[in-house]
Amino acid sequence: MFRALASILVCCFFLEASFWSHICYGNLITCSGIVPMRYRNDKISITDFGGVGDGNTLNTKAFQEAIYRIQHLRRRGGTLLYVPPGVYLTDSFNLTSHMTLYLARGAVIKATQDTWNWPLIAPLPSYGRGRERPGGRYMSFIHGDGLHDVMITGENGTIDGQGGIWWNMWRQGSLQFTRPNLVEFVNSRGIIISNVIFKNSPFWNIHPVYCSNVVIRYVTILAPPDSPNTDGIDPDSSSNVCIEDSFISTGDDLVAVKSGWDEYGIAYGRPSSCITIRRVTGSSPFAGIAVGSETSGGVENVLAENIVLYNTGIGVNVKTNIGRGGFIKNITVSEVFMENVRTGIRIAGDTGDHPDNNFNPNALPYVKGITLKNIWGVNVHQAGSIQGLKNAPFTGICLSKVNLRSTTGPRSPPWKCSDVSGAAIEVSPWPCAELTSPQQSGSCASHF
């Protein structure tokens, strides 16, 4: 029976879900050229491999055997692995190419809390060590390395990382290695994540790193506001990434674009480029849309638009540091509404820590071409802060039609600016003398 149902659901979904071509030119990024995803002729259920959705039975072997079958039989067009309603407890597991992990409505894939047996993997070369602790790191709950043509989708089923035990280890200082992400793809391409709820990640929720052609859409990502480092979506040294039509409420940045950490990211030298973020709504005690602070491989050509933020620490946050090196350029954020936000806009060169003492203090980041336009905020305590570096000023900072109202009246406290140049038009409260009118600054006039 599930085969007939899955055929109908998958057929309907694939009319909408798709690969896409990502066109990047100048500082404008568009998602276009939608191409239907390949239909999966072969369909199997986790129950075919002994899966039991009672919330108590351990299903690690069932997932491993099902994915082994997909990997080694290599059915033409790939295989859909169907997870029916129920709660499927499992250890972490690896995906394979040419597969769809499909969660039915009411299906929950839940991580065990057996942290002692959680597998360890090598640190990412662009980080040189685990992000939290030296040495290796715990493998993500659902992991993929060197894959292509993979989907995680369904009828809004749930992937639950049961992160509470990991958060407590972090608070108590008892972590031996860096906590696992909920979902991570490494060196992969042609990835679609859609129509799934992600909750209670131990660390970052969705982390595509060294990837290309990634679509993340129609997802819900949830974690308590006090859960440490539970970033929503972190494209990292990846290109052609589209994030859209999603709700995120976590304990850290909702979307953060990254590209490696200090000397390790500089040496690896893989930028994040052509990143589109649109129609994302959410709340966080940290940032709504962030670039950084790990940007040592470079970040360029990022477009974020139609963003709604509430109860958030910083609306838009571009952050880097001495020792990062790399570049941040051609960033456009537009059509943003924010309410009850501590700081509306923050662009800073003094944010983030270092992996070790071997970073080069002369490796200064290059920041140029950041456009923020059509941004409206109410109950914004501090309108903005743009503070570059004395020996590496931030240039081409362009503000247009930005209105950020204070919690105490129509005017927010004054902007803080230093080591920055650019232009502003129709900005309230007026930002700072460093940002002149567009008539006085030819470098930004083309943005208005």
TrEMBL record:
It holds the Pfam family Pect-lyase_RHGA_epim. Gene3D superfamilies: Single-stranded right-handed beta-helix, Pectin lyase-like (2.160.20.10). One of its GO terms (molecular function) is polygalacturonase activity. It comes from the Eukaryota. The keyword Signal applies. The keyword Signal applies. InterPro entries: GH28_Enzymes, Glyco_hydro_28, Pectin_lyas_fold, Pectin_lyase_fold/virulence, RHGA/B-epi-like_pectate_lyase. Residues 1-26 form the signal peptide. Residues 44-100 form the Rhamnogalacturonase A/B/Epimerase-like pectate lyase domain. One of its GO terms (biological process) is carbohydrate metabolic process. Belongs to the glycosyl hydrolase 28 family. This is Probable polygalacturonase. It comes from Durio zibethinus (Durian).
